[in-house]
Amino acid sequence: MKKHNFSAGPAILPESVFAEASEAVRDFNGMGLSILEISHRSKQFVAVLEEAEQLVRDLTDAGEDYAVLFLTGGASSQFFYAPMNLLGPDHTAGYIDTGTWSAKAIKEAKAFGQVEVLASSAADNYTYIPTDYEIPAHLRYLHMTSNNTVFGTQHPDFPDTNVPIVCDMSSDILSRPLDLHKFGLIYAGAQKNIGPAGVTVVIVRKDWLGELKRHIPTMLDYRTHIKKNSSFNTPPVYPIYVSMLTMRWVTENGGVAAMAERNAAKAKLVYDEIDSNPRFKGTVANAYSRSTMNATFVCTDEADSDKFLAACQEADINGIKGHRSVGGFRASMYNSMELKSVEALVNVMQTF
Ligand code: PMP
Hints:
Layout: E1 4-5, H1 15-26, H2 43-60, E2 66-71, H3 74-86, E3 92-97, H4 100-109, E4 114-120, E5 141-145, E6 147-148, E7 153-154, E8 165-168, E9 183-189, E10 200-205, H5 222-227, H6 237-252, H7 255-276, E11 280-282, E12 294-299, H8 305-314, E13 317-318, E14 329-332, H9 339-351
Parallel strand pairs: 1-13, 3-4, 3-5, 5-8, 8-9
Antiparallel strand pairs: 2-10, 6-7, 9-10, 11-12, 12-14
Helix pairs in contact: 1-6, 2-6, 3-4, 7-9
């Protein structure tokens, strides 16, 4: 029997995607060849790449002023890629420090220009999303991590500012509608809401590139990949294909607005239980900061933790352990998780 998979990433994908993706490994579109053995320049794969790009555009409202790229190196590479392409030595970028991943992005940016950390919840172990900060008009960009996978916090909205936002959306892209015009650059490792690990989706405003004097290695220059439609070198063919299937699934299931509704319903179910069940408590400081993607909580009595984990295993619930750096529990409920899996978890919490 298929388990209820609450893994934080690589994470759950729709069952129909697993079925179609495994068939394509044997025989892709009746070609008599596996998708794993055809050229990335074949017309069959170019069609996949084009459809994947169009799906990203449709799901994020990205018009022709934005480029959509499929890169490698994970979201972690975007921590340096973005400032290398956008931040000159005399520029200042503002960063909002809301977790481990933001902190890593800040460290990388400092190698390329000036960095102002406008707000940070580090002193409170990243248990909330700061709201009380000014955004100076001179900033080259404002960097945010929309959803903090490790700490279970999420920016419920994005500030209204003329400063373009650069956003790490690794763990909540395609989970809700976006006001794309606020963003100069969005990047996301695919392995939560887009597809499997191995590809990073980048959406970047084209007119923003090419303004720096810095030498940028060819592979690390967004313009290289724009010019060559993400095929300057061999792209991650299979992750792109599975991402395309997953984005088709999102589209067929009502698009990002429907995903937002689904995700809100799942999050409400689990947070209501955390708040009403005396055996558990949430780790996020206020409702405003709570993530719809990753709900983090602990047992009120630490001594219950192992028993609760065993009860989850008994109920075929996988991936519920918190990030190794924070402990406790984390229920990751990305787009393709069904409400019934969250009900199964809540049921274990109630019985416990
Ligand atoms: N940003 C966020 C918000 C993440 O959750 C992660 C981890 N999946 C990363 C960045 C790093 O991603 P990657 O492993 O693709 O480099």
